[in-house]
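User: Hey, quick favor. My workstation is busy. Could you predict this chain's structure for me?
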Amino acid sequence: QVHLEESGGGLVQTGGSLRLSCTASGRSFSSYSGEWFRQAPGEEREFVAGILSGGSTTYSDSVKGRFTISKDNVKNILYLQMNNLKPEDTAVYYCSLTEANFEFWGQGTLVTVSS
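Assistant: No problem, here it is.
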């Protein structure tokens, strides 16, 4: 059974940095794409960043230039480096991995940015 676990969330001040990790276990991923989403209180879940199996990346306009998505294909870990954090980045962050039309989700990790 595939399990994704996010880690690295926490409380940080405005302008600070955090690195989220999403570790996959239960199967070996050979060619996967990954995405990060977030959901703020009272809001819908929104796309944050994505990375294709070949390494191409895409970002939402709200995080472009501040966040960087990457992945370690050997360790099956998806990362999200978040710099210059703002209070509006406060949300639960979820990772998703997709391979061969199978999509897997983590349980989320809370990021709180204080002003």
